[in-house]
Amino acid sequence: MPANLTPQYLKAEEEFKRASTSEEKLSCLEEMLSTIPRHKGTDKLVADIRKKIKKIKESDEKKKASAPKRINLFNVKKEGAASVALLGFPNTGKSSLLSLVTNARSSVGEYPFTTTIPIPGMMDYEDIAIQLIDLPPLSEEYIEPDMFNLMRSVDLILLVADISQDNILDQMEFIIGKLRSVKIELVNNKDIAGAGSPRPCVTYKKTLVAANKIDADNAPDNLAILREFYGKDFMIKEISSSAGKNIEELKKIIFEELNIIRVYSKPPGKDADFTKPYVLKTGSTVMDAASLVHKEIAQNLKYAKLWGSGKYKGQMVERTHILADKDVIELHS
Q: What number is the average pLDDT over the span 174-179?
C-alpha cells in the first residue's frame, strides 16, 4: 500500500536529515510522527520513527549519566499562571522593568551585561501571579545555548526594545534573525501557527514588544519607525520603566497575550471562592475546568451552572460549554 506521505511530513523528514543536534532530530521525528498518515502502508515507517526517537533519548540519557554533573543556571522552575521571558539588548531596561513589577531585584546598571543569569520574579495581575524571567541580554558575541532552551519553554516572549536608540531597527533585525537561526520564530498572538503553514521543527513563540524609554527626546520618532516596520508583526506598547509610565497597561496586555482565562469554583449551596481562580487556556470547556477542580468530579460530571460572561446568571450548561474569563461554575455530578 502506498504511504501517501503529506508535504508537512516530507518537510520534517528533510529537516531531520539536516539536523545536527539530538534536540533538533527529536523535534523533527516527533513532527514526522504527528503528521504521517496512519494506515497499513505506514506501519513500518511509524515503527522506524519510534525506534529512532527511543534510540536518541537513550543515547542522551547515557551521555547525561556519564558526563560530569553540571549546574544548568537556565533551568528555571515554572511558577504562577504563566511564564514570560524578558528579552533584549544590553541596557534596554529589562532589569529595571522586572524590579518595578515583581518581587525580584535584578541588578540594574548603566553598563552592559548587568544581568548574567536568568532572574525570575512574580508579577501580580489582579488575582493571579505571572512569572517574569529577566534573561541575560542578547549580543553579537557568544550566547549560552541553554538560554534558547529556556525561551522555548516559556509561554510568551516580552521583547524589551530601547527606543532611545536610533539603531532600533538593526537591534530588532538581529534578535529576530538570531532566534530564527536556532529555529525559534517570534510571532504575534494572531499568527502563532506561522501564517497557516508552520515550518517543521520550528518553535513558534508568541511575542509582545515593550518599547521602553518613551520619555527620551528622540523616542517618539523612533517609536513611529518601529511601528512602521514591525507594527503588523507584533503588538507594541510604549512604556518607561524608569518613570513607571504605562506599566499597568503593559501588565494587562501581557495577560491578554497569554491567552488564558480565570474560572472560579462555586460548591453547591455555598459562595464562590474568588481568592484562588483556576487558570485555563482560552477556549477551555466546563469539562476542562472540572478536571482541574477534582478528577472524580470530572469523571462523573453531568452538568454545570454558570455565572458570568455578561449573560449567564446560574443557567445550566453542558460539559462542552466554552468558558470565558472570570466565569463562575457550579459543578454537578
A: 94
Half-sphere exposure of 192 (CA within 13 A, CB side): 12
Burial of 302 (C-beta count, 10 Å sphere; 0-12/13-18/19+): exposed
* pTM of the complete model: 0.78
280 SS3 class: strand
**Which residue ranges form the domains of the chain, and what is each CATH number?**
7-66 (no CATH), 83-257 (3.40.50.300), 260-332 (3.10.20.30)
The residue whose grid cell reads 477542580 is: 293
Q: Say which DSSP state 277 is in.
A: P
